[in-house]
């Protein structure tokens, strides 16, 4: 047991696994974020394209070698299956040039991995129908290496363990089926073939998982802000672009909240940047905890945040704002509450031409909220929600701003 534990620890460290979440990320993609899924889809499709483009050329070209050494009748049969395989590879290469999508990438990889075993099974059936010897037999035996080539190719794809097993199991079944011994003397050859395939499969699994672990660490580093743990602006732009295109294609709602913490500069100036970091971090935690499941919070820059609300109507966006105001964003070092000025924009109601225009509109309304007294949101048709009176008045007194008058302690709609 002690040796098994030591082996597990050694293997985990070699794969960069130090937490349970990191282990789950390698087992399945259920916990992968959208930036990771999009990046992985792009890698999978680009490598499927590379492999398929090469195979589309090499597979029919090999028929020249078959022509030199194999019987004419066998050569004609193999040419037919080679042309069909090359066509399949060419179609997959063409599909791989489309917009990266993880579901599409998986299907294309499955298609690529299925063409070669099918080619092998058919060609092996034809080859066994002929009595071959010498160079002919050597050429025929090269066909048996095709499943090994494909399983070794998995080392270039960042796959989870679940995906690896799903792709490798059919190929293992093909190898076992084709290696079944007909006589007792064939048993050692069958065992060695299956053992060699299993060994290459193990190496491919380790290499693929290691590649996935490295990709996860790099994408997480580039996609998530170190201080707040929110999406970075770069990752947020990818998210915005994707959600905007999905909303326009399906004609669904998509709301954007642009938040700017009120008087944050005074926190840095009076109490220092360390205190400002504490305020930012807690505000980010509050935003993440308050928004809906499926919403995305982005640190846009400094004390500015953007919240993407897929399928949210303007009224639903206001509901999210009301929850944010009620939950609060924490306190400043002097004990006064942190508030924010918020601008709202929505794809269908505002009929913008792209996501950049949507952000600009939300930014403009956020600026309107600031010039109107801060601690409020400004949405479509200048509809406003005010921060709870106790928070707004307290922060106003601490900054010598005129207080925003509200009738109670809950966010209240105000006509423009």
From TrEMBL:
Family matches, as SUPFAM superfamilies: Nucleotide cyclase
All copies of domain GGDEF, residue ranges: 252-382
Reactions it catalyzes: 2 GTP = 3',3'-c-di-GMP + 2 diphosphate
Record has Lyase as a keyword: no
Keywords, sorted A to Z: Membrane, Transmembrane, Transmembrane helix
Record carries keyword Transport: no
Spans through the membrane: 41-62, 74-94, 106-126, 138-157, 164-181, 187-209
Coiled-coil region list: none
EC top class, as a word: transferase
Entry EC no(s): 2.7.7.65
NCBIfam families: GGDEF (TIGR00254)
Identification of the protein by name: diguanylate cyclase
Source organism (scientific name): Amphritea atlantica
């Amino acid at each position: 047991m002690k040796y098994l534990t030591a082996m597990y620890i050694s293997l985990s460290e070699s794969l960069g696994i130090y937490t349970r979440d990191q282990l789950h990320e390698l087992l399945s993609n259920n916990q992968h974020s959208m930036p990771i899924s999009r990046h992985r889809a792009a890698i999978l499709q680009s490598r499927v394209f590379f492999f398929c483009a090469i195979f589309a050329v090499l597979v029919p070209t090999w028929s020249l070698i078959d022509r030199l050494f194999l019987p004419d009748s066998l050569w004609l049969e193999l040419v037919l299956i080679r042309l069909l395989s090359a066509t399949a590879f060419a179609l997959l290469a063409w599909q791989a040039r489309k917009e990266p999508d993880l579901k599409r990438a998986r299907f294309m990889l499955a298609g690529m991995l299925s063409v070669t075993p099918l080619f092998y099974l058919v060609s092996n059936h034809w080859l066994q129908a002929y009595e071959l010897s010498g160079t002919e037999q050597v050429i025929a035996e090269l066909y048996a290496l095709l499943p090994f080539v494909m399983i070794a190719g998995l080392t270039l794809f960042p796959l989870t363990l679940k995906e690896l097993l799903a792709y490798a199991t059919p190929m293992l079944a093909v190898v076992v089926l084709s290696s079944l011994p007909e006589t007792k003397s064939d048993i050692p050859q069958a065992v060695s073939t299956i053992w060699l395939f299993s060994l290459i499969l193990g190496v491919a699994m380790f290499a693929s998982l290691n590649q996935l672990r490295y990709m996860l660490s790099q994408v997480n580093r580039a996609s998530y802000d170190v201080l707040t743990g929110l999406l970075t602006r770069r990752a947020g732009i990818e998210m915005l672009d994707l959600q905007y295109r999905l909303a326009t294609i399906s004609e669904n709602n998509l709301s954007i909240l642009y938040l700017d913490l009120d008087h944050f500069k005074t926190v840095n100036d009076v109490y220092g940047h360390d205190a400002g970091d504490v305020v930012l971090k807690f505000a980010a935690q509050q935003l993440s905890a308050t928004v809906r499941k499926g919403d995305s919070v982005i640190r846009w820059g400094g004390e500015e945040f953007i919240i993407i609300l897929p399928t949210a109507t303007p009224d639903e966006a206001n509901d999210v704002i009301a929850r944010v105001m009620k939950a609060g964003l924490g306190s400043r070092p002097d004990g006064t509450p942190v508030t924010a000025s918020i601008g709202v924009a929505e794809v269908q109601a505002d009929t913008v031409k792209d996501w950049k225009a949507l952000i600009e509109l939300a930014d403009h309304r956020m600026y309107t909220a600031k010039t109107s007294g801060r601690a409020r949101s400004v949405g479509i048709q200048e509809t406003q929600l005010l921060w709870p009176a106790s928070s707004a008045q307290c922060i106003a007194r601490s900054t010598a701003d005129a207080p925003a008058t509200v009738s109670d302690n809950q966010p209240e709609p105000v006509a423009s």
